[in-house]
Write a structure and sequence with these properties.
Layout: E1 2-5, E2 14-17, E3 22-25, E4 82-84, E5 89-92, E6 97-100, E7 104-107, E8 111-114, E9 117-119, E10 124-125, E11 188-190, E12 197-201, E13 204-209, E14 215-216, E15 222-236, E16 239-251, E17 255-256, E18 261-263, E19 268-280, E20 286-292, E21 295-302, E22 309-321, E23 326-332, E24 346-351
Antiparallel strand pairs: 1-2, 2-3, 4-5, 5-6, 6-7, 7-8, 8-9, 9-10, 11-12, 12-13, 13-14, 15-16, 15-24, 16-23, 17-18, 18-23, 19-22, 19-24, 20-21, 20-23
Amino acid sequence: MAVVNVNGISGINSITAQSNTLDFYNSAGNTLSIGASLTGNVTGNVTGNINSSGVSTLGNTVVGGGTTQLVVTGNARITGILTIGTSSITLDGSSNQVNVGTGVTLHHTDGVQVGGNNLHSTVLTVNQINASGVITATSFSGSGANLTGIAATTNVVTNSLVVSGITTVAAGSTAAPSITPTGDSNTGIFFPSADTIAFSEGGTEALRIDSSGRVTMPYQPMFSAATYSSSGNTVQTNIVAFLWTTISLNVGNSFNNTTGLFTAPVAGNYALSFNFNRRASANNWHGAYIVKNSTTIAQSWFSPSSTDGYAPVTINYIIGLSANDTIAFCYHNSFSLPSTSSDGNFASIFLVG
């Protein structure tokens, strides 16, 4: 160790040259802290603070020893790759990429990769999504081959559904059709057997198209009767409605065999047929009338030329009716009356459409 006495430097009494250091002492022998600027390179260990306005090139550097070991006030720049932990977080500016372990990767073109799944601005590829809430999307694209778990129609809600392939539904039944409107589960379309389509209304079959294209409408309004029994309502002066001995059809009970009036249950076009046949003396007239709402819409008359000749009078007519319009098949009571023993008297009505 060499001691150098220094004269002319205020506060410094001596400098001691150690093997690797210079120690500055005051007159009392105490070590001094010297604030000075150093130009050049410092090689070796430095204990204390280093304030550098230029570029510092450091080898192995240990920063601090407390809980917060590195504090940077101002901007910091790292030109290479910053790795935090043991390959846990890597910031790679040259590749525009951030890695958190091997599970999360942020990349400027590949998007976000989480657990092997990609989240990207133009495409989303996900192996599996488990969601307990609502997933809202503007569109769905895919074959749907592995789409399962849609147990009820309320699980899929859409204003418009376009299907380019084949849609398959269950056969359904009269009480529970397979295709129904919202809020009316017993009205719609069902498929009772192969190559057959049926329509249900309120849980009752209303129309069926069978495998041969035949259409049946079991509740289509219709009425058919034969053999005059007695007189019904007088619907006009001297014009009296037929009542019938045998009523073979009265779907919907639209015909009243007390008044002799058929009341249209729905609006539509109705086909009417009426035959008034009797055995009368020569030149003895009798007439058949069809009356709608107390107004005659058709009539036909006949007078046999020989005694005891049969005199059939027939009217066939198609007319548009509104709901609750009435039809009566009538005779004129000032002329020959119907016979209760003649099967030649008959009438029918059915809704054409």
